């Protein structure tokens, strides 16, 4: 008999049919002449209840050795359940214990564990209801991302992970080098000589695929990337990872307002897909992780995002009468306390901030006519803050060169980027969505470390 996933059994199979399932035991309860086994295979949140009675030839072994955490295969016949918790259960005809589990040392006991504790057993935490549900939602969001862009003619572009330039110019780069750490070659001034390094220069892990993405958008029209990005920022917050996944669409012949429109329909589409495809998980998050999650998501789909210029936002903060830890005036970078106040208290929903002062934004953003601001936008969500950052790109060669000089950037690593402005330059624009922040919002999970399989944060990459 072919193995069925528990999800398929619950959705498609009926009482009277035979079935073979394989999975991990969540709990076992032994009665006098039979045992109840709750089996989970990760295909769905809920377990399949198995009834094993003493007529099984290996019943004694089952009672003695089939403990929480063990893996097994069960063949039997589906029957209508007398219990109220499930519609169907499996009456076992044959049970094979595949991998025993030392229940004395198995760290996942039946009680509820804290997420902090679960991070210390990141290899086993996918067997919990919450992490399993998060990863199924993550999967649906990833798939929906591809469907969304593919249906709109965007080309999926694989941008490099190793780069020679700092896209965001924030200096938060991880170095990539193969030089001998004990005795690296040095130049006359005694500095490490990277001309002997693997790439003939010091290289880095990418902070964003944008610059490479622009080059392909300026040939293929619309592209998107979806890959890991790396930031060596020493931020120990519930919203920062050193390795996170980003989706970066880039459109040629497009301006800032096109990115705002795209961001809005894309986010609404993703949220809609999760509500349709993950009803069981979303009901769980709403009940166990954060009350009102489903209603919040539905509202997100129904209401248009509010668009507010940076100047208006600063005015709102000034007249709020609030005492912020970091006072805000024109030119300041908005802190999360400001973002949260605007999102959660003033506008009570998602907002798109745009036209930021040029001094606080990256070099590649297009300067506005006022000479003070750039055509940039951030999408802010209640609870998580900035979820998307994007802009129209500076497509005028002379202005970009002047700006890079003013910012003291070494133009050499960007020579090819500048050439895109010399040969058939076009207005173009795009954005980056922080994938984990989106998952946080959708699931209501407090900490970003619990929405990625193996989180990397300062002092922490053990798995
Ligand atoms: O705003 P950021 O830095 O923008 C860029 O990297 C642009 N090059 C994107 C583009 O225009 N193509 O990052 C984009 C998003 C942020 O809005 C945030 O959601 C997420 O990436 N992000 C992080 N997520 C987790 N941990 C971190 N350390 C993050 N830093 C940024
Ligand atoms: Mg940003």
Report on this structure.
The chain is α+β, with helices and mostly antiparallel strands and 463 residues long. Helix content is 30%, strand content 24%. It contains 13 helices and 16 strands. It has helices at residues 6-12, 59-65, 115-120, 129-151, 210-220, 256-277, 279-289, 293-302, 310-318, 336-346, 397-406, 415-419, 435-443, and strands spanning 18-30, 34-40, 48-53, 71-80, 88-99, 155-156, 162-163, 175-176, 203-205, 222-230, 243-252, 306-309, 351-357, 373-381, 385-392, 428-434. The strands form 3 sheets. Strands 6-10-11-16-15-14-13-12 form an 8-stranded mixed beta sheet, with helices on both faces. Strands 1-2-3-5-4 form a 5-stranded mixed barrel. Strands 7-9-8 form a 3-stranded antiparallel beta sheet, with no helix packed on it. The two termini are 37 Å apart. The model has no long low-confidence stretch (mean pLDDT 95). It binds 4-amino-1,4-dioxobutan-2-aminium adenosine-5'-monophosphate (4AD) and magnesium ion. Magnesium ion (MG) binds at residues 378, 386, 389.
């Amino acid at each position: 008999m072919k193995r069925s996933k528990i999800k398929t059994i619950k959705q498609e199979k009926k009482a009277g049919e035979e079935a073979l399932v394989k999975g991990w035991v969540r709990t076992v309860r032994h009665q006098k002449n039979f045992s109840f086994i709750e089996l989970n295979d990760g295909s769905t949140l809920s377990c399949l209840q198995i009834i094993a009675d003493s007529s099984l030839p290996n019943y004694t072994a089952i009672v003695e050795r089939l403990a929480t955490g063990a893996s097994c295969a069960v063949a039997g016949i589906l029957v209508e359940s007398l219990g109220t918790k499930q519609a169907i259960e499996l009456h076992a005809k044959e049970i094979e214990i595949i991998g025993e589990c030392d229940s004395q040392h198995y760290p996942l006991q039946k009680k509820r564990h804290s997420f902090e504790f679960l991070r210390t057993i990141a290899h086993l935490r996918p067997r919990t209801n919450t992490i399993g549900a998060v990863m199924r939602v993550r999967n649906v969001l990833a798939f929906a991302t591809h469907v969304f862009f593919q249906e709109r003619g965007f080309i999926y572009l694989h941008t490099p992970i190793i780069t020679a330039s700092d896209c965001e110019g924030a200096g938060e780069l991880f170095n990539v080098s193969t030089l001998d750490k004990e005795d690296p070659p040095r130049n006359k001034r005694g500095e490490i000589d990277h001309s002997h390094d693997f790439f003939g220069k010091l290289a880095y892990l990418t902070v964003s695929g944008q610059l490479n993405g622009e080059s392909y958008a300026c040939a293929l029209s619309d592209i998107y990337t979806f890959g890991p990005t790396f930031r060596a920022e020493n931020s120990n917050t519930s919203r920062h990872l050193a390795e996170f996944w980003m989706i970066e669409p880039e459109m040629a012949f497009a301006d800032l307002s096109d990115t705002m429109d795209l961001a809005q329909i894309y986010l609404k589409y993703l949220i809609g897909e999760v509500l349709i495809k993950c009803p069981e998980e979303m009901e769980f998050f709403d009940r166990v992780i954060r009350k009102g999650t489903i209603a919040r998501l539905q509202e997100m789909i129904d209401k248009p995002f509010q668009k507010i210029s940076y100047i208006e936002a600063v005015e709102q903060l000034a007249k709020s009468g609030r005492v912020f830890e970091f006072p805000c005036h024109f030119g300041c970078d908005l802190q999360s306390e400001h973002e949260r106040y605007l999102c959660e208290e003033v506008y009570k929903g998602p907002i798109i901030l745009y036209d930021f002062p040029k001094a606080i934004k990256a070099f590649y953003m297009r300067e506005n006519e006022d000479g003070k601001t750039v055509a940039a936008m951030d999408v802010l969500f209640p609870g998580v803050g900035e979820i998307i950052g994007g802009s129209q790109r500076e497509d005028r060669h002379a202005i970009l060169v002047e700006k890079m000089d003013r910012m003291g950037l070494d133009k050499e690593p960007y020579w090819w980027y500048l050439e895109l402005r010399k040969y058939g330059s076009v207005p173009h624009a795009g954005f980056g969505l922080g994938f984990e922040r989106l998952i946080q919002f959708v699931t209501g999970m407090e900490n970003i470390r619990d929405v990625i399989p193996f989180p990397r944060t300062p002092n922490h990459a053990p798995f």
